[in-house]
Amino acid sequence: MIATGSVPSSLPGVAMDGERIGTSTEALAYGEVPDHLVVIGAGVIGLELGSVWLRLGARVTVLEYLDRILPGMDSELAAEAHKIFKRQGFEFHLGSKVSGARAEGDGAIVEIEGADPISADRVLVAVGRAPNTEGLGLEAVGIAVDNRGLITVDEHFGTSAEGIYAIGDVIRGPMLAHKAEEEGVACIERIVTGHGHVNYDAIPGVVYTHPEIASVGKTEDELKEAGIEYNKGVFPFAANGRALSLGDSAGRVKLLADAKTDRLLGAHIIGPRAGDLIAEAAIAIEFGASAEDIARAVHAHPTLAEAVKESALAVDDRAINA
After folding, report:
1. Is 178 a catalytic residue?
2. Cis check: omega of the bond before 272, within 30 degrees of 0
3. Of the listed 82, 197, 268, 301, which one is catalytic?
4. In principle, which of 43, 51, 132, 167 could form an S-S bond with 183, CB 3.0–4.6 Å?
5. What is the mean pLDDT of the chain?
């Protein structure tokens, strides 16, 4: 079984030296808090590590090629995250194409097309990750890869070479540790018992910023693009007693349910303990539950989970404490 994970992606023109200009690996262990950290890429890794150094006292500037942060996540939630992060002190430059970066003296210079260069103490290149498949000798045993270097597998994780399987970051799908773990279990179960399955619609993703951001299932953007009719329920943490008592009430819970069947299609949370709260929605999607099922379940008071129940009630315009 091939499970070699992924490596940070690079960017043309950016000369990474592992000291002044580096990846998430180096950003986990800076020897001191940089006065000014430039983050290239407003995805999950860039925002997570950027938020760490921001809270430790660094000035953090984020450069993103697209016109939004957190590409691929629910756009409404990403827009709210953008506002919250700006209030925290993040400096965002969206629609910025980085053409180069180089170490210079005790710092670094980042060049941007159509804009003035930016000086920084450190530069974090966070433009995604690539499958770690180079140098494995895949071609020697006839294992096919696509144009991104991902290993091609069938529905049971089998590669084009008989008896060799692949899971995790080296195959299609989100590059998440828990996704890889489930694939590993399913692959071995299939080999041993003949049965093994992963429900890719029920794999949650979490952004470990403050506040946390978590999603599972379809985004509102995906439902619109697919022409699927849905109902939406939203409930703010500002109306949740536990969040208020914690002094951590920014954000909201958003549930998306099929307009005809009420089956839960997606859940998106930004706020306190979002990474823990998303588990309820993942279970609901796994079992084909409806928003009404969540709304009818008794949630202890006072808890953050009440915001999930209220959001489920809001799908049918029945929120109690909104």
Report:
1. no
2. no
3. 301
4. 167
5. 97
CATH architecture of the domain with range 6-129: 3-Layer(bba) Sandwich (3.50)
DSSP notation for 166-203: B-GGGSSS---HHHHHHHHHHHHHHHHHS-----GGG-
The predicted model gives 175-180 an average pLDDT of 97
Run of H or E residues at 165 = none
- Asked whether 6 and 169 are in contact (CB, 8 A), the reply is yes
The CATH architecture one would assign to domain 205-314 is: 2-Layer Sandwich (3.30)
pTM of the model: 0.94
Domain with CATH 3.50.50.60 in the chain: 6-129, 133-198
pLDDT at 133: 95
Tokens (6 digits) for 207: 């952004």
Asked if residues 80 and 270 have their Cβ atoms less than 8 Å apart, the reply is: yes
Q: Give the pLDDT mean for 110-121.
A: 97
- Whether the CB-CB separation of 47 and 62 falls below 8 Å is answered with yes
Identify which of 86, 89, 87, 29 has the alpha carbon closest to the alpha carbon of residue 59: 89
Provide mean pLDDT across the span 116-124: 97
Residue range 7-28: mean pLDDT, rounded: 94
Where would I find the H helices in the chain?
A: 24-27, 44-55, 75-88, 177-193, 220-226, 241-246, 274-286, 291-296, 306-314
Say whether pLDDT at 290 is over 90. Answer: yes
Q: Which CATH architecture does the domain made up of 133-198 adopt?
A: 3-Layer(bba) Sandwich (3.50)
Tell me where in the chain the CATH 3.30.390.30 domain(s) lie. 205-314
Q: What is the percent of the chain with per-residue pLDDT over 90, rounded to a whole number?
A: 99
